[in-house]
Fold this protein.
Amino acid sequence: MVEIFENIRKIYTFKQPCAELAGHIEFFSESSFEATRQHITGESFSVKMFPSWTPTFYINLGEPYYITLGNTRYFIRADEDILILRNCTVERYNSPADNILTVKFFPGGLEAVLGIKQTALQDKVINLSKILPVQLLQQIKQPLAFEERIALLQNYFLARYRKPDDYYLKFVNDAIDTYAGTGLQFKNAELAEKLFTTSKTINRYFNQVIGTSPKNYFSIMRTRTALTGYVNRSAAFIPFEYGYYDMSHFYKDVVKFTGQRLVEHV
């Protein structure tokens, strides 16, 4: 399965975070045995995901598996839980016995909730026991309902969470919201003018919070949004609505971002 080109969400159960954490956590999810049996044929399969710069917890409730970050493959034991940044293409190799609990943060969300800067996580697989208490992880792995596991995590997050007063965190979030709300068309200079600052300041804050330049992050954001729109309604797709000059400009970004051509998924 390939993210965006296919609906990888159909084999998971999702839950949105509570209101206090909604600005920092995108979602909680857990593998669904029933949905996997319904949508997947065969004993094993893989799920490929493209860069998003979103810190993500993978808590293993099932069997061992392999995961590839960029060009490096890792073996994850049944008792091992991990944190990755998703700054590169990620492919996880699954089996029907898999059961993964996922927590996906927004860019900068891990720092806001747990005080951990994501800039040090690039291209790494971090053992989650270095981030979360072992006792909490052991509780989550007990035979509990999905909602009970989410409650354990949210209670821990809320106990640790202090509404961040760091200006640069808020600035980056505001910049992302502004870019999304203006048709994905602004260049750095235009965005800087909109936010009453300089391109140099935007660049410094993005590298400080996310770990990459605003140009790279916004390029990923635009391609993700446009490609999703294209896959959902290719006949009605208008590249100008996503800041592209024409279809060839859009096609070029898709290949750069995914390494795949649209004709491969027609």
Summary: The mean pLDDT is 92. The first helix runs from residue 33 to 39. The beta strands are 12-15, 25-31, 45-49, 56-60, 65-69, 72-76, 82-84, 90-94, 100-105, 126-127.
